[in-house]
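Most newcomers find our protein records easier to grasp once they have seen one. A record pairs a protein's sequence with a compact description of its fold. An example says more than a description, so a record of this kind follows:
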Amino acid sequence: MPISPSLGQLEQAVMEIIWQQPATVHAIQQNLILKYKKVAYTTVLTVLRRLSRKGVVTRTKEGRHHVYQPATNKDSFVRNMVKQTVDQFVSKYGHEAVVAFTKETARFQSEFELKNDT
């Protein structure tokens, strides 16, 4: 199943947690509470089920609990997300999309070089 490039804010927050370390629903919830104050266990479970359907996480049973882990590392996920996005734009807009991406890539490259020089 291809990984969906679209992650909502809470989905992204959950992924940031499990990219650091596989975790149970409860552990993820406790981590999210530090950032969002109030997050229900069922909300976290729903987010994890959506991420599983998108092919972004997997789970294993350990004792009475499920432990969720990323289906791929963050670097691979980002590469796949960028590839899918570029493929979609190029298939819709062709040469214009390639030109636009080339210009934007050059702009970001310049910004990164300036940051690294300081």
Notes: The first strand starts at residue 57 and ends at 62. Strands lie at 57-62, 65-70. The mean pLDDT is 88. Residues 32 and 38 are 8 Å apart (CA to CA).
